[in-house]
């Protein structure tokens, strides 16, 4: 830890943000650090090499280096439900995020028009049990063609194969419409209503091989009562889902998230 | 519904509170109504009979009649964890609730002194796998002797038999230290930590035959992060538990809760 | 109260929803009731007259009658900030609400394109201290031409005259970016940061003559910490604002809100 | 910053916790660091001196050094309202906090018995407009006699003089029963009800010369509706107040709080 801050200071970097976390039990140390390159002695293109040689390799660190002028490229997978989709497009159009969205993939054609307005390519790839493998191949090709950095499943409703997911480890963000681990899988609002819970939730997480079991990024909840029908829960849940998904995307874009052992460290 | 309010008005009752709920799906109607007896034409002792004959029997209503000067008698079951116990005693001593607590039953002797200060009988009944049936018989006797109306399991940590529970249907309030149905059973904070959730919760519910599966009365949550160890969750959870349990007791004492099909209507 | 439900039942109406509230202190009674007209004995066009004659006039009730197939007409006032605007348009496009939005008025031209996509007329009326009275006259004309039922100020940022507001009593919904009554007026996030609060909020309310002092419809909050700069508060606040405004619009459209003495009864 | 961690590492200290905050606007840097003294090269009694000489003086740091086996001494000021008082005593008896409470001062005699059970000295000092200065002199004497480190005003309801407060800068914790800066001063629940807010709150803060205007430590809120009378707000607020006050005390005891420019950094 000394070495990281030393590495920055001694080379003229001005630290703008520094957050740390010690997992005492597992003896793992996490750090997120931002610094100003204005007077930094090492060229941008060389920082990674120097850091590896002088610091990271000695301590067997896992590390990633990002530059704040990078614009990550995000693909959106959508189905028929539009609330998360519209919310993301609105933020995109308003410039809330530093991101490029060159590609939307959907198993339905419904939202082609809205995508078109913003000049985003919208690919309609209907998925059935039979053609899933083939469609995933096409999806992966499209993702590569568009040099996609990470994927957002905005209520996509289709299960992705492990193979597909393994191409984007910790880079596929899903939104699940329950307070996980309660009510994984299909129709969580129906289950929540049936169980008579007094609070419902939404969970954004990185997709992994097990359904709705990946590392949780963000959760939030809203109070319900006996007055709320399933439809009321769906309505209240929509707003939760879009906010919880947007927060996850924002943290991902800020490189605030470190994943380990199926959990996340989210520096705020 | 007309008939209930008519019954009250025509006999000179002044309605103070009226709440209703229609379960449109199941075609069930719920009502909670309070009225002033000052000018009521029917004697207190006769209201039930008149109401049954003139209103309830005709519509096959399930109904209960309570008088606001009744003081329900509550028994407390405790173990070694003291936060809910102390919180309840403090409210009792401060007169927050209209309740009598004549009896505390525990499988440990730890909190005898605190009970003694308020003049509450404290019975130490250690429970083992072998003597459970016998101890439950003693417990039931004690509950009867003290004319107990309802039981609060303030982190009691022992599983009660179905037989025992059936003696007090919808009259045993339990607090579970998770956001049910997530993490039922033992050590929910450990499971929550392991799963990496971003929010933890507590749930108060009526005990029924299935563990942690009875009708939910109240839930609340608190935000956690990667910084929170299991111990931090336990600490934050303690405050949740005592508040969520106290709210359930309060609603029970106000007769705000109607149970049906393993769910609750809680009129506020 | 008997009379209202009697009026409905005796004429063959099936009650779908009924909520009541008694303000015991002020001796005011509030009710919101929905019923099915399928077998109702009185013609739609006559219900109001019959209800007035047979029920309301006798008890000097204030009452309103709405039919669930009515589609209210809403005008949107916007300025340069787009998050509430986009959120409303997305809900409109997705059909979340039963509403018609024929008119958007703005003191800036920025969002004309987005409005145009949905075929909504967008009128650019720059407001200065000098021309305010004249522009308000034009606004009122436009509102009349488009037969507007209620107005939503989606971060409009301009102060409306009392005269203007009096044309739409309890029909102008504003969103203020603070937890009122804390931080009324300009730059509430700056004030919140300066004061060092640990929670920020947003408030939707009906506009009245006094700035940010009208009857509150809905509020919500989000936690902040010393880590949050004013910019972070603005970012977190944006999501609050759009949700809190959308909830108010939804309640208004459902006719859930009754206003009296500068407060609201909001039936859920 | 390098120097602090270097100072610890080079002398054999093992860092257990490290949190930092940069106020970029004011160019102030905050750090809270915990380390293990087991193999530390410098004697406990000398750490302060060495740290000052080698690190702090060079950078003109403001710093405090605490040892985790210290048991701070807290005085409680109470009046007639007992919920915060009982909650604190319960935590004290249960051993939730590492603290000593040798002294309770009250302008009423009501809670003498409860204090006596735990062997805490209870001094009854009735305060009037006329005798306030004299009573404060006695209070200060008592605080000195009992070597009090910090004071908790558990709904004390009396205004303290600036002189008194200046004796314990950032060491008098008050709980105010509103979401400050909304509703400072007397009867905030009445004001909240009058204003028709949809959420009420509680605020714990360090007392300073201006009433209810000191640096905020913690806030929390609970939802209310038109159904809630002032009495309901008082009831819901009681639970908020005790939790929000307890969190502030906990953070104070953990030395998590740094105060500057009337705001707090609270490291969690």
Which descriptors apply to this entry?
2 domains; globular; alpha/beta; seven-stranded mixed sheet; 268 residues; homotetramer; Rossmann fold; two-stranded antiparallel ribbon
CATH class group of the largest domain in chain A? Alpha Beta
The CATH homologous superfamily of the largest domain in chain A corresponds to: Formyl transferase, N-terminal domain
- Average per-residue pLDDT of chain A, rounded, comes to 94
DSSP, total strands of chain A: 11
What helical percentage do the residues of chain A reach? 25-40%
Q: How large is the share of residues in beta strands of chain A? A: 25-35%
Order of helices and strands of chain A: HEEHEHEHEHEHEHEEHEE
What does this structure look like?
Four copies of one chain form a homotetramer. Chain A is an alpha/beta fold and 268 residues long. Chain A contains eight helices and eleven strands. In chain A, the strands form three sheets. A seven-stranded mixed sheet of chain A has the order 5-4-3-6-7-8-9, sandwiched between helices. A two-stranded antiparallel sheet of chain A has the order 1-2. The first copy, chain A, has a two-stranded antiparallel ribbon with strand order 10-11. Chain A is globular, with a radius of gyration of 21 Å. At the A-B interface, strand 9 and strand 11 of A face strand 9 and strand 11 of B.
Question: Could you give the topology of this structure?
Answer:
Four copies of one chain form a homotetramer.
Chain A: H1 2-10, E1 14-23, E2 28-36, H2 44-59, E3 73-78, H3 83-94, E4 100-106, H4 112-117, E5 121-124, H5 132-145, E6 150-154, H6 162-166, E7 172-176, H7 188-195, E8 199-206, E9 216-223, H8 230-253, E10 257-260, E11 263-266
Parallel strand pairs in A: 3-4, 3-6, 4-5, 6-7
Antiparallel strand pairs in A: 1-2, 7-8, 8-9, 10-11
Helix pairs in contact in A: 3-8, 7-8
